[in-house]
Amino acid sequence: MSITPLMPVYPRSGVRPVRGEHCHLIDEDGTRYLDFASGIAVNLLGHSHEGLIGAIQHQAATLMHVSNLYGSPQGERLAQMLVDTTFGDTVFFTNSGAEAVECAIKAARAYHQNAGEAGDASRFEIITFHNAFHGRTMATISASNQTKMHHGFSPLLDGFKYAPFDDLEAAKALIGPHTAGIMVEPIQGEGGIRPASQEFMEGLRALCDEHDLMLILDEVQCGVARTGKLYACEHYGITPDIMATAKGIGGGFPLGACIATEKAARGMTFGTHGSTYGGNPLAMAAGMAVMEAVANEEFLASVREKGERLRTRLEQFIGNYPELFELVRGKGLMLGLKMKMESRPFYVHLRDHHQLLTVAAGDNTIRVIPPLVIGDAEIDEFFEKLSAGAASFKVPEPV
Ligand SMILES: Cc1ncc(COP(=O)(O)O)c(C=O)c1O
Asked: Which tens digit of pLDDT belongs to each residue from 82-101?
């Protein structure tokens, strides 16, 4: 047998972390890495946050799992926290981002199809955007135009139409009698830390209002304080009808949520959706510990302030290497360093030669997405490693 016990779907690197300490990961051979990847925008409280650990330990010892057949005091508490701090009126808990997006897609379809006289059973299409990433389930790969994710999995789920990102007129042109909603990441993550423009986000909101469409925001990567607001839509001054959140919300514990207004959730009635694990007490304890830490103005302001500092220094830094870097973009502590060449070799170089973990993304970008609890020492260490990495980087010869 040549297949590995772990199904070989990831190109795994030689880094094999066994322990985390605040903003560092320690490999099984003892090597220390500065973690400016945060498990891809997940570990927003770092790796050894006492409050989060304590909440999980306490809940694990009290009650780990019960079925959604019973009342959920823990779920009610976290749902209330999300309702109190967002546009939403109601929440469905999931175990991942893709499941949160799935629930959002189902809610948008059900809004039209499961609303009796008020609805329209022929509406099912969702407009999405080029280079979006919404997850790896059949519906969520179908929701992305990225053909590399489709290969080998046909037929795709019907009902998605793709427009260029940030192109309002193109989105408008795709609206037809079967359109149910529009789904967008306010800041594309995998697509290369690309913030949508103000006009685009406001325009999508207006289009949805005009045509009775569900505006779905995928804030799986950009949500939960990452950009210095609890959710990125707040930067734009708009609210969605439905929002998917995950990653940071569990701080490392698998947790996601689909948040909706009462109107948008009108089709999600008894028996229409479910999940065995979704919203179990252990996940709820993790989510509440994270929300307690981040959903306050003091913490959010600190993210904005650190983000500004990091960005200013990154902008100065790239001036020293005009042959390598083009620009810095993003919001808060969701920053992207756009390179003038493919970004993966530089990301590998930083990882393997300077023990600095970042993430490569689309559009030749290096994602700089540290834990939100970084301090001056980690920012200084980041620039030491980044500068040493840029100075020693040899641009690979084109093949
Ligand atoms: C914007 C966005 N949506 C959805 C997902 C899927 O989340 P998960 O991997 O938890 O299923 C991701 C993951 O990277 C993401 O960045």
From this structure: 999 999 999 999 999 999 99
Residue 17 makes CB contacts below 8 A (sequence gap 6+) with: 25, 26, 27, 28, 33
Number of the ligand 1 atom closest to the C-alpha atom of 247: 10
Say if strands 214-218 and 32-35 run parallel, antiparallel, or are unpaired. Answer: unpaired
Q: How far is the CA of 56 from the centre of ligand 1 (A)?
A: 23
Indicate whether 90 and 198 sit together in one domain.
yes
CB 102 within 8 A of CB 320: no
Q: Phi then psi for 19, rounded to 5 degrees? A: -150, 150
Domain span including residue 338:
17-48+304-392
Looking at the 3D structure of the chain, how many domains does it have? 2
Do 34 and 77 have their domain in common? Answer: no
pLDDT at 397: 83
Q: Is residue 256 part of a domain?
A: yes
Atom of ligand 1 nearest to the CA of 40: 14
CA-nearest residue for atom 13, ligand 1, is 135
* Distance from Cα 1 to the centre of ligand 1, integer Å: 32
Whether residues 157 and 247 share a domain: the answer is yes
pTM above 0.90, yes or no: yes
pLDDT of residue 116: 92
> 245: which strand partners?
257
CATH assignment of the domain containing 361: 3.90.1150.10
Do 40 and 57 lie in one domain? The reply is no
pLDDT digits (tens, 9 = 90+) for 176-195: 999 999 999 999 999 999 99
Statement: residue 398 has pLDDT above 80: no
- Kindly state if the Cβ of 97 falls inside 6 Å of ligand 1: yes
pLDDT digits (tens, 9 = 90+) for 307-366: 999 999 999 999 999 999 999 999 999 999 999 999 999 999 999 999 999 999 999 999
Length reported for the chain: 399
Q: Is 93 in the pocket of ligand 1 (CB under 6 A)?
A: no
Contact at 8 Å (CB) between 59 and 282? yes
Same domain, 243 and 316: no
The closest-lying atom of ligand 1 relative to the alpha carbon of residue 222 is 1
